[in-house]
Design goal:
homodimer; alpha/beta; 434 Repressor (Amino-terminal Domain); Rossmann fold; 6-stranded parallel sheet; 14 helices; 12 strands; DNA-binding
DNA sequence: TTGAAAGCGCTAACAC
DNA sequence: GTGTTAGCGCTTTCAA
């Protein structure tokens, strides 16, 4: 392993000694330097430089009770998480926003129920200022375990008792689905099928609702439940074709599912879009572009969702944080949930 | 935002008072309970339970100088990072291993040169016990900036002056490439082309070397430089076809590149594998399986690489950590680099 | 404006 | 075994 620094890192004390001032003064300079006269600031800065001083965050947190760190909890037992770049994009957005606010990203991946206690303990341990929680399934016990930690959810949580005032960022899944299905109908398709996502997630439920909004009294046989995966999409498509050979369009709950459907349609000799038009959801490049034919889909801005989540959380933290409370200054609104619009991206498949 | 616990969390002191013992005893119980008599352990446990006590990590780190946290640094300015599930899989492996050791994963994504200083500062700030660093390009300044923090690299670093005793985990890129090309040659192909990866990364260089090992005195025109992306693969394939229309096989530096190549081959009316056989690298499902035809490729176990990196780092930390040093017990070997084997996965494309 | 001093909550010697 | 005590490195009143 690369170099092990055995010699202790310099402390405030050391810097103070070197600069010939008190610890308090060094602390002030390090934290912005307000109320310290210029020549002293200069002296301290130089000492910091020379000694390569870096504040010890543990000591600082101990007194300030701030950590400048945010936990990102991805509660997704399935391998699916890593089959599409969804989370990577969210992380990217989050990371950008946090970085801009000098906050760190602590990633908590949970593989199953066992991990919930661990995550809860961690969050309760006061390691982080807040949490961003993803991919909740209905009745996920996690939210109940993390009370006391400011949290923003990715996607509307699916609690039966409403969302209990939880703050979340979501796409307009229902509206997007409506637009997709309307597009298919506008193309003259009458037998529009729907392959759902995992119905224990609100995104899947909302997309199904959107489909139903447009296809009122649709043949129930045209809807088949699936799970957001490629393999699931294949299975679902086979089932649909067996059940309703006359279908002329498919709205799939996401692009991965649509890719599976496309493959089966090709297998079965159905031409896309001539025989069957297909629309996906997510606009997950390069899946959609690489698909054959390139996939018409509903785009959501994943990275922006991540960024927004982080922003809401940080804003909330500032609002309740010591800084603003002390000054009693413009106490901003408590942040509230945001639903981002989607857009239909037309390609060759529909 | 969900609930803001305003009342202060209980401290060791509070637990001690409640259990009628000293802080030291509580501390002992909380940290394993060695050397505390059973009835007391019980009393303390109950008090902890009742008060919902959770240790304050900042206070603990301040004295132990351990953080039970490891930074994962992904230094990848390109969007590419998020186009394939490569990092997600590594993260998964790392996360599993860290979790098993009660360590946290702090993710540091760097978007460009500007971020290096930030990352260096963070690492120097003693927030973490060690670092796992990925995706280094040649002459990346980062390694120079993080001296003092135990580090394991993902992929062999490409420093001109050797790897300076750095510990890394890598795949046998060269051997895997050899196997891929030998396979093509074994199929009777004589004009085997190679689309390289980004040659500022050792993985790309090693794969090129492996290709050359087998194709000694190959037509230099059969090798074209690319960048591990789908678009890059398309461009490279076009160039190759223009330059060497008689080529009968392509070894692409990764699956994404291969996918690009496949697309262009189809465009140009070349049948795969009859006219041109194609082999990729990575075995990035579902890319390889979804490809048309399904892609023959060199598989590397990405998740295992991640897990191994974490294991090496943790082992090294234990070795030098207070615990083992104090006891003077079996001082294990300093961990050394590991190169994982690859395997050829045959599908339809070659 | 600057410094002195009191902790933040915890662990680890060292006594008892 | 258990308790007492001295810090870990920092911020933050409070005086000067």
């Amino acid at each position: 392993m690369t170099e092990q620094s055995t010699e202790p890192r310099p402390t405030l004390e050391a810097v103070a000694a070197r600069a010939g001032v008190s610890r308090a003064t060094v602390s002030r300079v390090v934290n912005g330097g307000d109320g310290v006269r210029e020549p002293l600031v200069e002296r301290v800065r130089r000492a910091v430089e020379e000694l390569g001083y870096v504040p010890n965050q543990a000591a600082r947190s101990l007194v300030t009770r701030r950590h400048d760190a945010v936990a990102v909890v991805i509660a997704e037992p399935e391998t699916r998480v890593f089959a599409d770049p969804f989370f990577a994009l969210q992380l990217r957005g989050i990371s950008k926003e946090l970085t801009a606010h000098d906050s760190q990203l602590v990633l908590l991946l949970t593989e199953g129920r066992d991990d919930h206690a661990r995550v809860a303990r961690y969050l309760a341990g006061g390691h982080v200022d807040g949490a961003l929680v993803f991919s909740l399934h209905l009745d996920d016990p996690l939210p109940g375990l993390i009370r006391g930690v400011p949290t923003v959810y990715g996607g509307r949580p699916g609690w039966r008792d409403g969302s209990r005032g939880a703050v979340y960022v979501d796409s307009d899944n229902r509206g997007g689905a409506r637009e997709a299905v309307r597009h298919l109908v506008g193309l003259g398709r009458r037998r529009v099928a729907h392959i759902t996502g995992a119905l224990d997630q609100t995104s899947a439920v909302d997309r199904l609702d959107g489909y139903r909004d447009v296809m009122v009294d649709a043949d129930p046989g045209l809807t088949v439940e699936s799970d957001f995966t490629l393999g699931g999409g294949e299975r679902a498509m086979r089932e649909l074709l067996d059940r309703c050979p006359d279908l002329d369009a498919v709205f799939a709950a996401n692009d991965l599912t649509a890719a599976g459907a496309l493959r089966v349609l090709r297998e079965r000799g159905r031409r896309v879009p001539q025989d069957v038009a297909v629309v996906g959801f997510d606009d997950m490049l390069p899946f959609t572009e690489q698909a054959d034919p390139p996939l018409t889909t509903v785009r959501q801005d994943i990275e922006e969702m991540g960024r927004l989540m982080a922003r809401l959380l940080l804003r909330g933290l500032e609002r309740t944080g010591a800084a603003s409370a002390r000054a009693g200054e413009d106490v901003a609104e408590a942040p509230s949930s945001v639903v981002l619009p989607t857009t239909l991206v037309r390609r060759a498949s529909a």
